[in-house]
Amino acid sequence: MQPVVNPKYPGLAIRVADEGFAAYVWGSDFSFEVSAYAEAERGMPVADWPLRRIVPYRKCYGIDPEEFSSYRNAADSEIFMAYLDDQPVGHVVVSTNWNGYGHIDELAVHAPARRHGVAKGLLEVAQFWSRKKQLPGVMLETQNNNLGACRLYERCGYVVGGVDHLRYRGIDPNTSEVAIFWYRLFADEPQA
């Protein structure tokens, strides 16, 4: 696959992950600030979700590059890396889910590279990959404490398909984290 270049961000290119994937992951900061928990609702804009404000803290999901080692160059999955001015700054792991949708297993952007179109570019590549596989759309999951991601998905045409209040209770019975499942349905889009 040729690198995808975003004309709005000319220094941004996206291509299939290479041998440098693990080093890039270990050297990146994927943390984000949590300052509230949202009450996500289907059909309601993210800006209108009620919020429960909390004392801010940094959240970081442990990303293990070996977890997706079998996804590279496979028939039903792929890893793409984003580069800003030839420096690796983000990645998306996409696969074919059991329900026939493209599934974004992971999307992450190095903290200093945010707000440069990296995540949007990675989402576009995952959508392109899914369309090329003739899948009906793309799905992903995030949490109610990652409001930046929720706003991004909404701006990129994703809709909330479901909210799971129990998903993380096995890890922490007292957690306020809620899983939000987002979908981008290709059938709902005008044909070019």
From TrEMBL:
Pfam families per the UniProt record, alphabetical: Acetyltransf_1
MF-aspect GO terms: acyltransferase activity, transferring groups other than amino-acyl groups
Alphabetic keyword roster: Acyltransferase, Transferase
Gene3D superfamilies attached to this UniProt entry: 3.40.630.30
All residue ranges annotated as the N-acetyltransferase domain in the record: 32-188
Superkingdom of this protein's organism: Bacteria
Entries under PANTHER family matching the protein: N-ALPHA-ACETYLTRANSFERASE, N-ALPHA-ACETYLTRANSFERASE 50
Protein name, as recorded: GNAT family N-acetyltransferase
